[in-house]
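Q: I have 277 residues here and want to know how they pack in 3D. Can you give me a structure?
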Amino acid sequence: MPMLPTPMVVLASGAATVSAHGHDPTRHVQIGSLTKVVTGTALMRLAAAGILGLDDPVRRWLPRTSHSGMTLRHLAEHTSGLPRLPPGTGRGDPYRHFDRAALDTLLHDADRLVDSPPGAARAYSNLGYAVLGAALEAACAAPYEELIRDHVLEPLGVDGMSADPPPGARLLARGILGRPRRPWTMNGAILPAGGLWATCEAAARLLTKTVVEGALGELAPTWQRAGDVAWHNGHTRGACVFAAARPGGDWILVHRLGGTPRAAENIAAGHLAGGRP
């Protein structure tokens, strides 16, 4: 059976929007770990407002945490020592049962979970950003979606980003037989690490307002760096995204419903090197 073409959207500086093979930049798609940029930006905003400190111990906001040396900065910079994934995640829908009770249990055992002392090494951690999101909720006494709306999305004028958009507003990858693939369940404790849905237009606005225009001040440590380029990606079941920009310069966001994350990265790299999507 021939492979179906991969639905794709590319939004980029100096280029017309590309929307191919049934993708739609106005429909909600999963953005995976690009959610971390929103969480990290909220952290920076709350620190600037004096609501919390970047070097606050996690234990200040989440008292059940057994590890005393872990800070919010460690979580944001992926230097907490926590593993990449919560223990016990499965294959089919890995975060389905990872709720707040499960997170609280892990926090109680954090001393035994860490792979290295906080600050000693960098190791990418979805679990770390789940903990960071819970700490932000405690500091604001507000649920995650409310705090990111108030401190990130509304100040940037970003609409079209949500943990649970209406089913009719969603766009899903399709399997070999053309049926929609069921997305991962990510609206529980893992939400701050990778659970947001967004239109590609909204995700591009987040990228341009934060990185290119610097509208909210200092960039969150969430952003990865390659020379003068700030970038982040995201990957869920059936969706991948890559966003990159130069402060004050060019930018690109690629979202694909299927295929490999590497393909999205290569498209972005070509644009930033002077080519075209």
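Q: Anything worth noting?
A: The mean pLDDT is 93. The chain has ten helices and nine strands.
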